């Protein structure tokens, strides 16, 4: 039985982000076009992961040894980019009990001093992570995660350090794909790092279903990809939660986004027209 992109994305064995899915597809294509009997080898031999599919997983997916090898290369590439283990194994992403009815914007958990050596951050940059309650498209509430980048010499305003809320682009559809869980925060030397090096505090939500994947009741949180109003809620409530957790932050902020995040920044401006948030200066 042939394996398809849909099988790779949704089979329980697999949990790929979009770049890794493309890598897996490319490796599989090359394997079959070059030689069906010769498995490919990664160009690096220092992956920080040695994950292998079990025989039962191979059988369930209907894949042969060559494709198994190529999927494992992609999986180990993916896992090597994690800042720690799976989100299902990390304490930070476990939602506290009895929080399912907390109001949107409520702080659920604060990890003020994250071990920065697990990330590839600019020099003299610190990182925090927060879990907070956000609002879904239909008005419900779910927990979500965000990271905060702190500059060594922050700019100062009259009421605290200036805040930029960063809305990221598409990173995947599963909990493992939250930027706060990835060593380079998905953007490496792009916008978030440039902002923090300019002295701004960056508050960056993972979005619903990314990072935190299970709520306080044990139910899976689905990621509402392309639901810009949902992600705009994530942006506003992440800032609110960060301001609650860290009193040194100013109440004023702007929103910046790229790709999917550009649509989120637009939705934030639209939301402001009907549900004004004090301190929002624009997109």
How is this structure best described in words?
With 283 residues, this protein is of the alpha/beta class. Helix content is 30%, strand content 17%. The protein has seven helices and seven strands; from the N terminus they run ααααββββαβαβαβ. The chain has helices at 5-10, 18-34, 55-61, 65-80, 191-197, 228-245, 260-274, and strands at residues 107-111, 126-135, 141-150, 161-167, 201-205, 249-257, 280-282. The chain has a seven-stranded mixed sheet with strand order 1-2-3-5-4-6-7. Helix 2 packs antiparallel against helix 4 (65-80) and helix 6 (228-245) packs across helix 7 (260-274).
Describe the structure concisely for a colleague.
With 283 residues, the chain is an alpha/beta fold. The protein has helices at residues 5-10, 18-34, 55-61, 65-80, 191-197, 228-245, 260-274; strands at 107-111, 126-135, 141-150, 161-167, 201-205, 249-257, 280-282.
Order of strands across the widest beta sheet?
1-2-3-5-4-6-7
Please tally the β strands and state the result.
7
- What is the rounded distance between the termini? 49 Å
Give the class from helix and strand content and strand pairing.
Answer: alpha/beta
Helix and strand run = HHHHEEEEHEHEHE
- The gyration radius over C-alpha positions equals 20 Å
Could you name the ranges where pLDDT drops below 50 across 5 or more consecutive residues? 1-15
Biggest β-sheet: count, sense, barrel? 7 strands, mixed
The percentage of residues in β strands lies in 15-25%
Mean pLDDT across the residues is 87
Helix content: 25-40%
Q: Please state the overall shape, judged from the principal axes of the Cα atoms.
A: globular
Instruction: Supply the number of helical segments.
Output: 7
